[in-house]
Specification:
The chain has 380 residues and is α+β, with helices and mostly antiparallel strands. It has 13 helices and 15 strands. Helix 2 runs antiparallel to helix 13 and helix 3 packs parallel to helix 6 (170-184). The chain is globular. The two termini are 36 Å apart.
Length: 380
């Protein structure tokens, strides 16, 4: 498909049929969820994109910075934390689609410095799905820099047999992203910003926010309401480094629900990220994305995005055959940094999605409640 036709199709999606609810009715639903939430959680600014049947509506609240009082818009840049993992996963899927790697490859095949380590027995798929054997949520402080990172992996010993336990981990999927970039022959940031993001049509999404866009970059606030932004760390770009807007994430949701309008390798990449590999309770682990049968109760969605799911090991019940592009499921991913909180969810069979970005890290359950209320209103 040539680029001109691709742009026309994507534009048609963005300008397509009306939503299930009239705009004023949806505004009432969103306002009634968001306004008390912002007050209760002390959130300075929040932006929501609602995608329904190709149309996008934006709902913006508060300020991007208390200092400047600049209002939040759909162009405001937020840190999205671990929602970045879905981009890393898509880049990995793209590398596989273009013949640069296979998810079944052992990690050390793509980095000779890992030869002779535990990573001779750990696959790229296990890294991408948090099942290499117990890599922790974060790097130890002493290893949380580019210089010490490699030595940490060389010396690390699994707690569990690879593939048996899910333990959510930045060093796990971060290494997957790093090895993906190795296979592509480019630094990760270059592969992301020069290859994947342009292919997705995302013009306001960055690993490193350029100087000329710094005025759009929201100020984050910590639990004490002090200004904070994400700092450097080992594999930060790969695990939690994306900064973007609700405008671009709405386009990203549309691309995930309508990959047929993208080039063939990117279609294959998205299908790979949507594939289910194993189950933990009611959640099925994809590549970056996690999914649930739809419709879903609010409590089930809260449980799947709970602190125990992020902090504790869970037995991975691998599917006999990976579940490719399942019907009637809700894909989602939460993300946070010290000063930001993000949530993205979408239901391809209903052609609807929600993006919620805020310049404060607040509980996942509260984000899920807002999204669930919006989906319930749309799906009537």
């Amino acid at each position: 498909m040539n680029r001109h036709v691709q742009k026309i199709l994507i534009s048609a999606l963005l300008m397509g049929a009306g939503t299930c609810m009239a705009a004023p009715d949806l505004r009432k639903v969103v306002d009634s969820s968001v306004e008390p939430l912002m007050q209760q959680q002390g959130i300075a600014g929040l932006s929501i994109a609602v995608v329904s049947k190709g149309q996008v509506q934006y709902f913006n609240y508060g300020v991007a910075s208390r200092e400047t009082q600049k209002p939040v818009t759909e162009g405001t840049l937020f840190e999205i934390g671990s929602v970045s993992k879905t981009f890393t996963a898509t880049l990995g899927g793209y590398a596989q689609a273009t013949g640069k790697l296979k998810l079944s490859d052992k990690a050390s095949e793509h980095l000779s410095a890992l030869a002779g380590s535990a990573f001779d027995r750990i696959s790229l798929l296990q890294l991408a799905t948090y099942t290499p054997g117990g890599l922790p949520l974060q790097f130890p402080d002493a290893a949380d820099n580019a210089g010490a990172m490699l030595s940490y992996y060389q010396q690390w010993k699994p707690t569990y047999a690879p593939g048996t336990q899910r333990l959510y981990s930045n060093p796990s999927i971060g290494l997957f992203g790093y090895l993906t970039a190795q296979s592509l022959g480019q630094p990760f940031n270059v592969a992301m910003e020069k290859t994947l993001l342009p292919k997705l049509g995302l013009k306001n999404t960055y690993v490193s926010v350029p100087v000329d866009q710094s005025g759009q970059y929201a100020q984050g606030y910590d639990k004490n309401q002090k200004p904070v932004r994400v700092g450097p760390g080992a594999l930060d770009s790969e695990a939690y480094g994306i900064k973007t807007s609700t405008h671009d994430l709405a386009r990203y949701v549309i691309a995930n629900m309508h990959p047929e309008n993208l080039d063939k390798p990117l279609q294959q990449a998205i299908a790979t990220t949507h594939t289910g590999y194993y189950k933990v309770n009611g959640m099925t682990q994809g590549l970056g994305w996690e999914y649930y049968p739809y419709p879903i109760t609010l409590q089930a969605l809260i449980d799947g995005n709970s602190t125990p799911m992020a902090m504790e090991p869970h037995k991975a019940e691998w599917l006999d055959t990976p579940q490719v592009q399942p019907a009637n499921v809700l894909y989602n991913k939460t993300g946070a940094t010290g000063g930001f909180g993000a949530y993205v969810a979408y239901v391809p069979s209903k052609d609807m999605g929600v993006v919620i970005l805020a310049n404060k890290n607040y509980p996942n359950a509260e984000r899920v409640k807002v999204a669930h209320a919006i989906f319930s209103a749309l799906d009537q």
